[in-house]
Amino acid sequence: MSQPARVIWDDALISYDFGPDHPLAPVRVELTMALARELGVLDKVEVAPCAPATDDELAMVHDPGYIEAVKRVSATGRPDLSAGLGTSDNPAFAGVHEASALIAGASLAAARAVWEGTAGHAVNVAGGLHHAMAATASGFCVYNDPALAIAWLLRQGAGRVAYVDVDVHHGDGVQALFYDDPRVLTISLHESPRTLFPGTGFPGETGADGTAVNVALPAGCGDTGWLRAFDSVVPPLLREFRPDVLVTQHGCDSHALDPLAHLMLSVDGQRTAYAYLHRLAHETAGGRWIATGGGGYELVQVVPRVWTHLIAEVAGHPIDPATPTSEAWRRLVRERTGELPPLTMTDGRTPEFQDLSGGYDPADPIDRAIMATRNAVFPLHGLDPMP
After folding, report:
1. CA-to-CA distance for 202 and 190, rounded, in angstroms?
2. Coiled-coil region(s) at which residues (predicted)?
């Protein structure tokens, strides 16, 4: 009998709050959990608490001096620009260490549950802070919880861990922390660094033996092109790498409505990708799957619906896209944001994969992006880059 899925949650996770004018508003996570609860998704999983990551746990990927700097900012609320705290992206606030350590602890709890076998899959929708570096905050991220989960798994004896990042921004922090470690395969599908922060994630960034993989997609790429890129790169590499555990980051800022980026995916395209990753976890990693949230700045129309679909997929009980949102949730949206809530769990799209079996078009910028990645890394894995 398969192990139950687990959602790691504590109401204090919404204390990761850079202020009322910051794009990373914690209401997006609050509304996600409320929608998942209203639709009965949380009835199909174990909801488990978490503890903050300890200093020793944080030091698996972060410099001790940086942890101490974050704690000083946390105690005083005063900026420390040497630690990256006090910028417009990463404002300093009192309690920042405690809030960040709790998110890190939630992803560690997810990793522990999956590795020890008390859960088959686990998800921390408050996590996915993939830009944080060893010694500095970056891109709204203070502690790098996906990297901590990976580092913890390696310490427990995992021989290979694969990380797939579908955020619109390059997963630069996770890549940097494991760039020279052939035990960790990092795959990031993101908008081209020519047009979007953080300016990294080119196909030529290949890491140790091709274990850093970057698919840099052109602005304007929608469901069909994005899913074509995913299908052309991710499954072959995961099948070849055969990880012990699959860790995934699910930033939903690739949606067409997201205000900070320029891809054009729908809720339906993102949901389709989550289902594919679920299948790949079973096919390539023995079903061991740890999922996190990530970016996403359309706080009402996108994030709650997409991540409720993610939780439902992790639970093994996907939601019919035509499902209406509940009236109680719509009232909550109006009370918390003053915005009009979406009425159903779909954008009305039916995304389909169009793979490379019929060849590729060198005049198509998406196909050029796909082939740049395949040419850069497939030979390093013994794979033929040609379709």
Report:
1. 10
2. none
3 state SS of 33? helix
For 299-360, the DSSP string reads TTTTHHHHHHHHHHHHHT-PPPTTPBPPHHHHHHHHHHH-PPPPSBS--S-------GGG--
CB 274 within 8 A of CB 252: no
Scan for tokens 């679920």, then name that residue.
278
Cα-based distances in Å from 56 to 61, 340, 383 = 10, 44, 39
Instruction: Using pLDDT thresholds of 50, 70 and 90, give the confidence band for residue 2.
Output: low
Q: Write out the catalytic residue numbers.
A: 131
The average pLDDT across 282-292 equals 98
Burial class (CB in 10 A: 0-12, 13-18, 19+), 14: middle
Q: How many distinct helices (H) and strands (E) make up the chain?
A: 11, 8
| Alpha carbon distances (Å) from 227 to 13, 18, 220, 280 | 31, 33, 14, 14
- Taking the alpha carbons at both ends of the chain, their separation in whole angstroms is 38
Cα separation, 276 vs 223, in Å, equals 14
Give dist(CA 306, CA 278) in Å, integer: 15
Distance (Å, rounded) from C-alpha 305 to C-alpha 383? Answer: 37
Neighbours of 182 (CB within 10 A): 13
Q: Give the pLDDT band of residue 318 (cuts 50, 70, 90).
A: very high
d(CA 258, CA 260): 6
Angle at 384 between CA 243 and CA 189, to 5 degrees: 55
* DSSP label at residue 44: G
Q: What angle do CA 124, 127, 133 make, to 5 degrees?
A: 145
How do residues 81-105 score in pLDDT, each as one tens digit?
A: 999 999 999 999 999 999 999 999 9
Altogether, the residues listed in the chain come to a count of 387
